[in-house]
Amino acid sequence: MQHLNKTIIVNKTRIIIVEQDSADAQDVENSLGKLGYKVVSIITDTNQAFEQVREVQPDLVLMSFQIEHGTDIVKTATQIRSKLDIPVIFSTTPQEAEEIEEAGSTPFQYVLKPCLERELKMVVEMALHCANITTNQILAAREIQKSQHRFATLVKLTPLGVLEFDNDFVITAWNPGAEQIFGHTAEEAIGASTFDLLLPEYEYKAVKQVHLFKTPKASKNINDNKTKDGRIITCQWFNAPIYDIRGKVVGLTALCQDITEQIRTETALKESEEKYRNVVQNAIEAIVVIQDHRFQYFNPKAIELSGYSADELQQLRIEDVIHPEDREWVTQKQLQQLKMGQDVGLYTHRIITPEMSIRWVEVKAVIIPWNDRSAILIFFTDVTQKRRAEELMIQTEKMMSLGGLAAGMAHELNNPLGGILLGTQTILKRLSPDLPANREVAEALEIDLLKLQHYLEKRKIVSLFNGILESGRKAADIISSMLQFSRKSDPNRALTDLSVLLEEVLELASKDYNLKKKYDFRDIKVIREFDSRLPAVPCAPTEIEQVILNLLANAAWEMSEKESDDPPQIILRLKREPDMVRIEIEDNGPGISPEGRKRVFEPFYTTKPVGEGTGLGLSVSYMIVTNNHRGTMEVQSKTGGGTRFIIRLPLKQESSQGQDV
Question: For residue 466, which phi and psi values (nearest 5 degrees)?
Fold first, then answer.
């Protein structure tokens, strides 16, 4: 409660009483106290009134008006009102009130003595209210003055041009910023026509269309302007109409900014970006930006290389297109580059297309900012053909070295094998009773050749010798195959219709029946996908038949080994490539392991059980295609996913005599 009383006292209106009569002063003080006002001082000497009021700074002064000192009192009251901005009320008799009005003191309010509380309160409140209004007006005027000063300072100091025009485009205001931009002083510009001073003739029509004063709204435009020294600059204008007190548009105020350099910079930047975009869009490399493991940008070559559409790439993560076997270490390289900012250099990995084909890419990656965060800019170069060529080169070199070794071995084996075969044949001949020379020697030694022959047959010695001969002949066939590696044969080549040749090979294969494996080639479904527009191919038909027949036989054997509900199937394809014809033999067998794919063309490498194969069929086929026909042969397979052999034969062959075939 004490705190509340203090608050009320603080908020009470503070009044000073100027009165020579102490009794009258006391009566007035009591009346003011009852009305809730606080008398802070009573001044009896009017000569000291102004100084004491200035020192105390009350809310109101109640001053007794004495006619004999009227002039001094009015002067004092006027000083208090004008200099201290404090309202003054005179307390006076009715006679003195008439004298106040006659003296021209009506700006001051008065209350008649004796002061009735009701009248006193009304006059005090009215004086305070009028003083408050006056004070607010003064403050508002001061704020307007400050605002005008700030605006004038801003107009003076801003680098923007601030101009005003009337409805005839005559310049009426011109700040230092406009002088700096256009070179004309205010004296030169004010009163001049905008068209004569600032605009080249070709801009007249455009500017007139923009500044339609009958349309009272703000606008902006960009146009060329001319300077005092004759230069053409580009300016951006922000315009607003000027209204008179009746709301009529009487002119235009405008802010002007010289954007010539900005336009040049933007144009240069746009041209640079356009050149960069053209370079990136037409680059022979695939270019992508990866952020948060997703594609943020990709050029057309990236779409072509990946095999995915633009919409599909936007939905994929970078890991989705990397080969599963390469995914982990490629991701680690990217993380290392992002975290450490290290240049990891060139590296190579595989990607997978939507058709599940594999492509090798060479990668160069750098860190760049992208949307205020780090991202990886990656350049992909398709090195699939290069990789295949390297693999074929390595395979060919290995085959050639193995071929040389095989040829040497074949020559070394031929001599003892020839001796074994010749010796075995000679033994059988010399044990035969049909030869006269044998009978002559046997009679001389009293040996019965018929009984000896019977003994050899009973003891199956003749069968053993025949087995030696059969094994020797098989060994001779193997040696003959081994010699294929070192022979650079030049067989008779002829223009061959490969579709006809494949049909003939299928006819031969259909007669194959493996009693041990219980498979019949005729039970295999064969799908033909032949390009009808294929040209004839120069080749040795019998050798190509040998290659195809060997691949079909291997496919049939592999599919017989697979335990699956899917029926065995072989797809034969013939396709045209720019300078070659492509032959594909694809099966749905068990596939080949990664290790097997690396060794599949090596001599004597086989996945068949002992006695089922020599391991020379594919190696001989490889040499026929690559060495004899200057073609290529490769295998694509994965465990459990079937196998595809791809043979490419050139459409143009050259014989050993240098003639085109």
Answer: -65, -35
